[in-house]
Structure formats: C-alpha cells, structure tokens
Design goal:
mainly alpha, 162 residues, flat, 64% helix
C-alpha cells in the first residue's frame, strides 16, 4: 500500500507535539541555559549505535542545541504549544498550521524534530525495525497510523518545510 500524504491535522499535531516535547528534552540536557553545547545532549550515544553515521550524529546534536536555545529563550511556548495541540481539529487544522508557520520559533522546533527523525531513521525499514517513542505514546492519532505511514508523515514534514 502506497503511503498517504498526511492530513493538515496530522502535520499540525506532529509539529506541535514535537515542539512541546522539545521542552522535556531540553530539561534533560546535561548543559545549562546560556551554555548550550552539542556535548550537553541527553542522548546516550551507545544506545543508538549503528542508527546513523557520525556526520549525521553531529547534525542531530547541532539541531538539538538550536532547539534548546529556543526553549531557553521562549519558555512560554511550552504551554502555548500544548494548548494549540489540544485544540487541533480537522476543521481548524489549516488555521493552526498557518499559526505555526507564522511563529518562527514553533516552526523551527517542529521542523528540527522532523529533521532529527529523518537523520535517525533515514529509511522506512530503519524506523519499522527500531520504532519510535511516539508510536508507543498515548496519542491516538499516532497509534492509528502504521509505523511505515508514520515515517512517511515525518518525511513529508521534513520536505515540506525546508
């Protein structure tokens, strides 16, 4: 079965969920606000061995630093993205996606999450084999998608918002 293009509702929900999760990931970092470095990542490199090459790993760390700096500078976005996520419906998804696109910080948080995802899982098979924490989450829209479709959703976002 060919992958479906994600709905605007799915795109908005993924971007907002990832933007909101960025605050949790930032809180887990080893470095501190005002002194963000790639080495401050909370990722355990050993647990992810073989998932990506070193060049991609460095890019992932750089994206994480950019995300952490946004979270540090705009803590109010944590609550805002959570509320926006909860409000997304099929009927208002287009307007909410425009709101995301008009806020460079929320947009960057969502885009960088999709970029990190694609660097970590460069193929559908790599994702299906490894899985992703969001597939195990309680978010019904994620659970309704098969793993492969979920990969295509992230791939679509990373291409759409270059």
């Amino acid at each position: 079965m060919a992958p479906q293009i994600p709905t605007t509702e799915t795109i908005a929900k993924i971007m907002l969920d990832e933007a909101n999760l960025a605050f949790c990931e930032t809180a887990e970092r080893k470095d501190q606000k005002g002194n963000r470095t790639p080495e401050g990542s909370a990722w355990d490199e050993g647990k992810m061995e073989g998932e990506y090459d070193q060049e991609d790993y460095r890019r992932i760390l750089d994206f994480q630093v950019e995300v952490a700096r946004i979270c540090d500078a705009h803590p109010e976005l944590e609550e805002r993205t959570a509320k926006m996520f909860e409000s997304v419906t099929e009927d208002n998804a287009e307007a909410i996606l425009k709101e995301i696109q008009n806020d460079p910080n929320i947009l960057t948080l969502g885009i960088n999450a999709a970029r990190i995802f694609m660097l970590r899982f460069p193929t559908v098979q790599s994702f299906v084999n490894k899985g992703h924490p969001l597939v195990l989450a309680a978010d019904e829209y994620m659970l309704e998608n098969a793993d492969a479709q979920n990969w295509h959703d992230y791939e679509h976002i990373s291409r759409q918002f270059r």
